[in-house]
Amino acid sequence: LLGIEGLSRFDIEALLDLSDKAVEVNRQVEKKLSTLRGRTQVNLFFEASTRTQSSFELAGKRLGADVMNMSVGSSSVKKGETLLDTAMTLHAMRPDILVVRHHSSGAVDLLARKVGCSVVNAGDGSHEHPTQALLDALTIRRHKGSFENLVVAICGDVAHSRVARSNIICLQALGARVRVIAPSTLLPTGIDRFGVEVYRDLREGIRGADVVMMLRLQRERMNGAYVPSVREYFRYFGLDAEKLALAAPDALVMHPGPMNRGVEIDSEVADGAQSVITEQVEMGVAVRMAVLEALAAHLPNA
Ligand code: CP
């Protein structure tokens, strides 16, 4: 699974259906299944992660796999070993599934072409973060039932966000109307190609929206570009209770995490009654179980 791009609506809905079943498993006291018994999953994260890495680890373990977390910080990557040499070294140990996060767009795809096992993209640069989009879609579907005519506003640093890109593709495939809201400097060039409605004013963009998805400023990807001050950014693009009141009364507030409170979102909203942010984390484990389970059917000798 390298991206949402290339998946059909049927593929996405099938993964969401499988995820719903995994939610039920995860809510039981006994959570262990044997779907991946005897299989080896290696999590290879070249970028920091709290939610994605830990939920892939839990997902693999709940499906019965042997899971190894490769600690890139203390690996030979620090001695200059390349991505491909690292991947080939791990591949020689015969894993069945590699879960990879990398700071360069396209790196996971490149790696997938070189190894013989299944590869899951856990986020590559500003390109795609497919399991995040799936868990966001699952969270929305469980609250709203359907995506038809649903207005989803994706707000903030869209230019550097793999979450935004995967969500735009996923939500449109499912039938939602997607708005993106950002200052001009944080809109990607060519955004018009995606068929989204573009806003440069948060108040205008979230008016009547059914879902308000906030994104953090990804300063690590800005490479010398203009970075707004926290105070000016929060004033115009931070979600607080006053701005949220412009969205639909039952609008969901979402954030993929990590949140920067007081920058793109106020604590009152992040922790408020409309927030489903911690529920997104719960859905993350279920979606990753579903993805691993779907891959299991394609592993050799499955
Ligand atoms: N949403 C997300 O990818 O979070 P992490 O960076 O903590 O994995």
Automatic annotation (TrEMBL):
It is an enzyme of class 2 (transferase). Pfam families: OTCace, OTCace_N. It catalyses: carbamoyl phosphate + L-aspartate = N-carbamoyl-L-aspartate + phosphate + H(+). Residues 1-141 form the Aspartate/ornithine carbamoyltransferase carbamoyl-P binding domain. Gene3D superfamilies: Aspartate/ornithine carbamoyltransferase. InterPro entries: Asp/Orn_carbamoyltranf_P-bd, Asp/Orn_carbamoylTrfase, Asp/Orn_carbamoylTrfase_sf, Asp_carbamoyltransf, Asp_carbamoyltransf_Asp/Orn-bd. Its EC number is 2.1.3.2. One of its GO terms (biological process) is 'de novo' UMP biosynthetic process. GO terms for molecular function: amino acid binding; aspartate carbamoyltransferase activity. Catalyzes the condensation of carbamoyl phosphate and aspartate to form carbamoyl aspartate and inorganic phosphate, the committed step in the de novo pyrimidine nucleotide biosynthesis pathway. Reversibly catalyzes the transfer of the carbamoyl group from carbamoyl phosphate (CP) to the N(epsilon) atom of ornithine (ORN) to produce L-citrulline. PANTHER family: ASPARTATE CARBAMOYLTRANSFERASE, ORNITHINE CARBAMOYLTRANSFERASE, MITOCHONDRIAL. This is Aspartate carbamoyltransferase.
